[in-house]
């Protein structure tokens, strides 16, 4: 029997790609602008975005009702998650809607089967994969259509695992850094939890894993510059925010000189196909 779950998504800070909005008309335009903003910065995205911990990937796969052999990385971007999935020894296929992002993925991972496609119209046969992974992207989907397509391509007992890298706000300086970037360029974007109904899935679970990203002040600012809120900001607003963030990092003992670990939490939500 199909089961329906109210799935609490993560309250991701706006600068980390939250697309949850409050005014339907303006919000649809903002959502579309942000969702399509990454391709022009594909090389920077590939260079600066963090990967995902192996423990998070294995936990996601462990939700399946059978061994996982074939994996789809959906909305794969430049392959940050794809590379980690390949390293687990599974057969991985990447699907990505943006041609520039996909070109960067195939440049970095030429042996991975990859093709253009959307979550709402996945170019794979029915029942062809044991797991679908979505890194930092589920909130961009037309969710009813995407869940129907994910259900279609999964084998019975297969698992959907959605991942988000999130600043570890238990670390005081990382929390303040995130707060500095959550300002008026993100107006109209809400941080509250969103709830979804997923037909045909059961065993919803959510957990998180400690993670980190080795950065300098310059490379951390380059990382946040690839987040959609800053990509669509007016140049003057973007420059002002980045200057404020740099000035703050210059005052923090952990970040004021040389390399440091940017503390993250990797949040994973998984659901098993009925």
User: What percent of residues adopt helix (DSSP H or I)?
Assistant: 25-40%
Let me know the average pLDDT. 79
CATH topology tier name of the domain at 38-167 and 188-214 and 264-273? Rossmann fold
* Rg measurement, Å: 18 Å
CATH architecture assignment name of the domain at 38-167 and 188-214 and 264-273 = 3-Layer(aba) Sandwich
Given the structure, what is the number of helices?
10
How would you classify the quaternary structure? single chain
**Biggest sheet features:** 7 strands, mixed
Query: What is the CATH superfamily classification of the domain at 38-167 and 188-214 and 264-273?
Result: Vaccinia Virus protein VP39
Strand order of the largest sheet: 4-3-2-5-6-9-8
The sequence of SSEs as H and E is EHHHEHEHEEHEHEEHHHE
> Which class best fits the helix and strand makeup?
alpha/beta
Please report the first level of CATH classification, the CATH class of the domain at 38-167 and 188-214 and 264-273: Alpha Beta
Beta-strand portion reads: 25-35%
Q: Gap between N and C termini, in Å?
A: 7 Å
InterPro entries: Diverse_substrate_MTase, Methyltransf_11, SAM-dependent_MTases_sf
Protein name: Methyltransferase family protein
GO biological process, one term: methylation
Family: Belongs to the methyltransferase superfamily.
